[in-house]
Inverse folding.
């Protein structure tokens, strides 16, 4: 029987995005036979923590096929547990699961650091300048409810990080009209991409409305909340230039590979993302880094009590994977 653990992780500072503010996050962990799997609970995805744990407790054989209707976090935690065990036995990393045909980047992969919506622009400027010494890619959370302040966030970051590749993530915080105004307006700051400018609840119709209101040549737009699985990717073709792939959204490592394959088959870019979660979850996701264009896997760096270690970053902000089989994250 696997050991099921519900764990509350504490953030060093509250993290503020368009969906709200967090100072703790829960993850569910399963341990079995020396292997480990983990999945985060995200407040705005409405996962039911108690139901997930109850479902996990009802799974008698972790390696057997899962019953239909599994809660997403429970499914992911078990999937990573099984993969960790299989890969450790075979002496290979999780990345060995990726099909050989899927084209990958060779060499070092630059990672991104994200900044929650700041309340103090001066402190924000100092933090961005400091972070930009190591990381070449910076992601700014926008969608605070005041588009003028959103622009100030971008202007501040650009002023202190002239060379950085800047990504914006609005987390659906703009209306279609605001997005139609802001996306061209932010063009002068040389953003590399803008993620989820409009709320996913508007569906494809809202994306179509936004695209119709924008000039043809505009900063690339990526979908995150609007793109949960590989099936969504096909629907978004022509409306976005890329999608954000996260293990939790897909419910499994194979599901994330499928989403990357779908994106590539439609000529779309890929951000590899994560939630605020421990080094177990981000390290599992980081095995897909060579297949992504952007690697946004810093969820563990917000934690005061990350009790595992795995993925790290070099002095230039590039991904360094642990040289271990399986997920490769180990207790600190
Ligand atoms: Mg996002």
């Amino acid at each position: 029987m696997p050991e099921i653990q519900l764990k509350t992780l504490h953030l060093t500072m509250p993290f503020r995005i368009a969906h709200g503010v967090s100072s703790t996050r829960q993850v569910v962990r399963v341990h079995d036979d020396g292997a480990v799997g983990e999945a985060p609970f995200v407040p705005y995805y409405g996962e039911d923590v108690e139901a997930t744990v109850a479902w996990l407790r009802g799974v008698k054989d972790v390696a057997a096929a899962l019953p239909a209707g599994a809660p997403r976090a429970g499914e992911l935690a078990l999937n990573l547990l099984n993969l960790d065990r299989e890969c450790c036995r075979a002496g290979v990393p999780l990345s060995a699961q990726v099909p050989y045909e899927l084209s990958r980047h060779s060499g070092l992969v630059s990672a991104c650091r994200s900044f929650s919506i700041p309340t103090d622009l001066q402190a924000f400027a100092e933090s961005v300048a400091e972070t930009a010494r190591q990381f070449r890619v910076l992601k700014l959370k926008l969608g605070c409810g005041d588009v003028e302040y959103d622009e100030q966030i971008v202007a501040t970051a650009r002023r202190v990080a002239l060379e950085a590749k800047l990504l914006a993530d609005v987390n659906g915080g703009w209306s279609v009209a605001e997005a139609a105004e802001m996306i061209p307006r932010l063009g002068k700051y040389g953003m590399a991409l803008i993620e989820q400018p409009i709320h996913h609840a508007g569906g494809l119709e809202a994306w179509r409305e936004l695209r119709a209101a924008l000039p043809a040549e505009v900063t690339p737009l990526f979908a995150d909340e609007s793109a949960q699985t590989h099936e969504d990717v096909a629907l978004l073709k022509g409306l976005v230039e890329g999608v954000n792939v996260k293990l939790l959204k897909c419910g499994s490592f194979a599901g994330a590979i499928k989403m990357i394959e779908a994106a590539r088959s439609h000529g779309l870019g890929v951000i590899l993302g994560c939630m605020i979660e421990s080094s177990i979850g981000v390290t599992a996701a980081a095995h897909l880094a060579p297949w992504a264009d952007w690697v946004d896997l810093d969820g563990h760096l917000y934690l005061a009590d990350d009790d595992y270690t795995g993925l790290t970053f070099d002095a230039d902000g590039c991904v360094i994977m642990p040289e271990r089989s399986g997920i490769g994250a180990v207790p600190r």
